[in-house]
Amino acid sequence: MTEPISEAELQRRLAQLEAKGLSRLLPSADMRRAAELSLEIDRLKKEKNAVVAGHVYQRPEILAAAADFTGDSYRLAKLCAQAAADTIVFCGVRFMAETAKLLSPQKTVILPAPEAGCTLADSITAADVRALKAQYPGLPVITYINTAVDVKAESDCIVTSANAELILRRFYEKHPRLIFIPDALMGANLSQTLGKTPGKDIILWKGSCVVHEGFNAGVIRSYRSRYPGLKVLAHSECPPDIVRESDFAGGTSGMLAYIGKTCAAAYMLVTECGLGELALLDFPDKKFIAMCRLCPYMKLTCLEDVAAALKAPSPFQIIQNPPAETASRALAALHKMFELAG
């Protein structure tokens, strides 16, 4: 039987969470509940030899009160593989947990919110990729990491928002044309950067992220006039007109690194709201102007889900290993990324 949490222990954990800045984002009643669940999750992690991975778009209480490490999908998958743990609780969406399982097949990987999908990953299937390859025989298929394992298995190389430009440049050294899937907006941004013509030099798919496709460039211009010295950082999944209005475009890790090494009057993060909340925790002395949208899938996971998944995961929460051939081909595409990106 589990011993009850003492008031002194609870107060110590509350103080730790307040020191992380969580009280700036949660009301006092929610802070107490977060502290209680945090202590329970810590106990369960020790009992199960588990770690919790938290994507940067997750709720702030997940990142501050439960996660052992945070980052984008690529960083989390690598950290999960390196973790000396039997169990990984992945607070993110399905394709991310699948990638972590692919790189850590011997570990138990649990997705607390099994219904957490991704509009970008769901926009393309392995059959779609095979049809593209039949339509454009011989063209290498470069695939954004935001995809299912069987789609990765049909690919020549995986990329992230941080290394896509570098890897495409290397492919263009040997190939005049290539296929880039599934994000049409990121593909359009890469096309402009690389001087390529969609449909001619680069074949794009029709996928997009429900969060990043709907931002308005006019709003950025309006805020720049109101906040002199504002730095605008946009995710590379945003439309090209948003990227053109920005001071920096890239992935979430690049955006946080940019904030860390610069000093601006204020920052606007054009991406999912969770990154802004994390930035508030990581950079309490810097000013942030809100321009974000919530991901309905990223926000499905709460601390109660993490505790319940650690205690007794359902079969739906446990990520299974893909078929051996699928896993082998998907891993080859991932390792090609590691080779080209360094």
Protein architecture, described:
This protein is an alpha/beta fold. The chain folds into three domains: 7-117 and 298-311, Rossmann fold (3-Layer(aba) Sandwich), CATH 3.40.50; 121-209 and 322-341, NadA-like (Rossmann fold, 3-Layer(aba) Sandwich), CATH 3.40.50; 212-293, 3-Layer(aba) Sandwich (Rossmann fold), CATH 3.40.50. Helices cover 46% and strands 15% of the residues. The chain is built from 15 helices and 14 strands. It has helices at residues 7-19, 28-48, 60-65, 73-82, 94-103, 126-135, 149-153, 164-172, 184-194, 217-226, 240-244, 252-261, 273-282, 303-311, 324-341; strands at residues 50-55, 69-71, 87-91, 108-110, 141-144, 157-159, 178-181, 202-204, 230-235, 248-250, 266-272, 288-289, 292-293, 318-319. A five-stranded mixed β-sheet has the order 2-1-3-4-14, with helices on both faces. Strands 9, 10, 11, 12 and 13 form a five-stranded parallel β-sheet that branches. Helix 1 packs across helix 2 (28-48), helix 2 runs parallel beside helix 14 (303-311) and helix 4 runs parallel beside helix 5. The protein starts with 6 loop residues before the first helix and ends with a helix. The model has no long low-confidence stretch (mean pLDDT 95).
**Mind telling me the C-alpha Rg?**
21 Å
CATH class of the largest domain equals Alpha Beta
Which structural category fits the helices and strands?
A: alpha/beta
- Proper CATH architecture of the largest domain: 3-Layer(aba) Sandwich
Number of DSSP-assigned strands: 14
* Low-confidence runs of at least 5 consecutive residues: none
The CATH homologous superfamily of the largest domain is called NadA-like
How many domains comprise the coordinates? 3
Strand content: 15-25%
CATH topology of the largest domain: Rossmann fold
- Neighbour order of strands in the largest sheet: 2-1-3-4-14
Mean pLDDT: 95
Q: How would you spell out the order of helices and strands? A: HHEHEHEHEHEHEHEHEHEHEHEHEEHEH
Main beta sheet = 5 strands, mixed
Question: Looking at the structure, what is the overall shape?
Answer: globular
Determine the N-to-C terminus distance: 49 Å
Total helices: the number is 15
Determine the fraction of residues in helical runs and give it as a percent range: 40-55%
